Amino acid sequence: MAVDVQRLKRLLEAPHLGLLIEGFDQRRRVFEARLRRARRKPALAAVHDLRVASRRLLSMVALLDAAAPVPGLIRLRRSIRRRLKDLGAMRDVQVQMGLVETLLPGFPQLAAFHAALDRRERRLAKRARERLGEWSLKTFLRRTDGVLDAMIAGFDPEVDSQVGLRIQSAVEDAHRRVVVVRECVDRRRPETIHRVRLAFKKFRYMAEIVAPARRDWTPERLEAMRGFQDRMGAIQDAGALLDAMAAYRRRTGRTSVLVAENEVRRRRAGLIEAFVEVADEIRFFRPSRAADTADARAGKAG
Amino acid sequence: MELYVLRHAIAEERNPIEYPDDAARPLTAEGRRRMRRGARGLARMGAALDLILSSPYARAWETAEIVAGVLDARHRLETFPPLAAEVAPEDAVSELAGRLGGMVSVMVVGHEPQLSAIGSILLAGRADVDLRLGKGGSFKLLCPRIEPRGATLEWWLTPRQLRRLAR
Question: What CATH number does the domain containing A227 carry?
């Protein structure tokens, strides 16, 4: 296997900067691959993966902006966000359809609602295909290449320890934000849990970026974070489904979905209770300063 | 009694040279593939059948065979001539009433517009309720008695919905 000398040099001379460059490069590649796949066929899995890749790249951009800002980041962030929005509605409908499919055998009266979602999904998929096609991959690659070039050009091992501190501080800030919004959780207002979810997602993606350089962010811990986030995701999905059912009832005057709606409401209440029980686990994910191993990788520590 | 009504899957195009007898038109490969998935959707909707009655036409019989395979009901599969496309729906309903006494869960596989007319008669006593099925689509009636206005509609699913349920 060929050894990438530049890569090794970056990681040995300046582990924090190296981490950012590597992380950015990897995430933009994944994003590009996901975008190409979703363009071919915007199926549920492809759209989901593209949205996840978008959020990971956005977290990367946020971390870069905080730790080692270079020109072009704001424009890149704006364009990714805009595209993320284009896919949001379709992803919501796809998730709702999946949930309705689990309910259908017990609530066959949902068949017409499911058919309505199916029609909506097809419309949105068509629109998503158009939007994804409009997005110039060339422009995206030029922008990300520009960011990467600026990072490499500004590569200065002298400032690496400062960058390390800024990365640490950005991750701590993200965690602090999660703790603050968790304090505001009110089980009667599910949107307060959604706010925790958004903040936690940002924190988790940042944690994934720094994980290769830290002893405390083990794969098991990252997996536990994903599980924690999924709990909140299930609550949000149930809420979105309830909104869609209510809108369908208003639009069509069909009250047949009411029984199933009550069931979804009951299940969501259970999910909320279960989440509130474990919500304080957020504190266990707090990043610790002592665990930074980037210096160790550079051969400067213990 | 639970009555599942299923339209045959996608069949070869009408072609008087290749299929001089329209009853011999088979399913296409895509039709068979889709129907296998649709049948898994039917299984997910809880279809557990005592009997599958199929039109004698090849496309309906092949469809019924696929469903019987997926629902593990091969030995409960029979042809039922009144489900052939040219039989009047009123006659088909009378024949079904004679054949299905004592059954709990039955599927009929046939053709449009006959199937939707049968459903409509069982639901409303007349043949004008729009229950048209796409190829491989299905609806389920709850029928305490096989007679006009003797049924209620439990669900009506497009072929695409059934395939999605198979996931």
Answer: 1.40.20.10
CA distance to partner chain A, nearest, from residue B138 (Å): 11
State pTM to two decimals. Answer: 0.80
Residues of A in contact with B156 (CB under 8 A): 111-112
Query: For residue A115, which residues of chain B lie inside 8 Å, CB to CB?
Result: 157-158, 161
Q: Tell me the residue range of the domain where A231 lies.
A: 5-284
Pair A114, A256: CB distance under 8 Å:
no
pLDDT per residue as tens digits for the range B100-142 = 988 899 999 999 999 999 999 999 999 989 999 999 999 999 9
Q: How many domains does chain A have?
A: 1
Confidence band of A298 (pLDDT split at 50, 70, 90)? very low
CA distances in angstroms from B139 to A137, A194, A238, B96, listed in the order given: 46, 38, 27, 17
Domains of chain B in sequence order: 2-165 (3.40.50.1240)
**Beta carbons of B155 and A109 less than 8 Å apart:** yes
Q: What percent of chain A clears pLDDT 90, i.e. is strictly above it? A: 47
